[in-house]
Design goal:
Helix content is about 80%, strand content about 0%. By secondary structure, the chain is an all-alpha fold. The longest helix has about 55 residues, at about 5-60.
Length: about 110
Amino acid sequence: MRTNEERIEALHRRAKEIEKKRRDRQILTGQIAGIVACVALVFVLAFTMPGFSDNYLAGRHSSAMSASIFSDNNMLGFVVIGILSFGLGVAVTIFCFCLHKWQKNKESEQEEKQ
């Protein structure tokens, strides 16, 4: 039979475990929401940038010769999408690294309990 001190200690230990699980779940939810928001932003910009660059570049035609790749075509939209896609790739990589670390911590905690 347990003493009152042992019961209180078990209660505090269980409360800490529950709080840690809740915190881990919140972190994971925030990371997933961030990734979804980044993907949605890339898709929205991928569909809107060509129209924006058409309107932006339509009034900027000049008869002078220019060596810029952005002067007569719609490459500006593709460059912006490329940069945003790179940022999304970095965010997904960081998310996967954190998820892998979280899973390792969870496995080590389960091994310690056994």
